[in-house]
Amino acid sequence: MGGAAATATVAHDRRTTGTIVEDQSIELKAYDLMSKDPRFKQQSSIHVTSYNLVVLLTGQAADESLRSKAEQLAASIDRVRRVVNEVEIGSTSTLVENSRDVALTTEVKVRLAKIKLPDFDPLRVKVVTERGAVFLLGLITKKEADAVTDVVRHISGVRRVVRVFEYI
Prior knowledge:
By secondary structure, the protein is of the alpha/beta class. It folds into 2 domains: about 5-90, Histidine-containing Protein, Chain: A (2-Layer Sandwich), CATH 3.30.1340; about 95-165, Histidine-containing Protein, Chain: A (2-Layer Sandwich), CATH 3.30.1340. About 45% of the residues lie in helices and about 25% in strands. The radius of gyration is 16 Å and the shape is globular. It contains 6 helices and 7 strands, in the order H-H-H-E-E-H-E-E-H-E-E-H-E.
């Protein structure tokens, strides 16, 4: 992330700068730990997102043992407070599915920008999409979470909405 983009992100984020850096470090450590087991590369496509020291695992794994191992590895990282394991058992996403997810994430972000609530900033909501499932992370109020969820669940192509919010 470039300097200007990083500054803009920090300005909108409710996490401290230290927590933002720690979240990035947690993601890198999780990927590093998984890279040490060749089964992850050969039999899975697991994505790691850390937000406020809560790790969200998404993607696919060939079997339950890999899914569980990813969770154990993430939980073993210092400062991780909780792991939300949404990894599905099955084949990895296709290029077409990945493209749909990118488009869906973009649509979600566009729609979030249209929410009219006092002090709501759509940049405070992290959006992760996997096979039409939209995962929402952020430090937001309950009212903001309800508005975000209501908007997202009405978007065409959204299969399900998973809230991984923390409330302030």
